[in-house]
TrEMBL record:
Pfam families: DUF2810. It comes from Shewanella aestuarii. This is YibL family ribosome-associated protein. It comes from the Bacteria.
Amino acid sequence: MNLKQELQSLNDKLDKFRRKLAAAEQRGDTAIIMQFKREITAVTKRIANVKGQQTRQLNKEGGEVRNLPFKRELTKAEQADMGKLKKTVKGLVVVHPMTALGREMGIKAVTGFAPNKF
């Protein structure tokens, strides 16, 4: 399971535990309330851990892309025919500003990174 799927399942579990906790609080069942509070705490810690892993993974990937020797913004024509561009430029990595990697890198326009000038 990748990090994104794991994070989604943990958020689903957290939501389920919170709903069950609310129901137990309405009933006044103290044993169940304590159990769900412990489980909510554990799942919250695990979510924070997975988000940290995602951040480290993005930072690593962003560093690898940033270390490529050549970069430039792509024109609208190049963006329209991305397949042709990728065939002509070996090792091209295209980063869009709206992706997680693009936001992490602080990119404002669609940018291409490559080992050689293109």
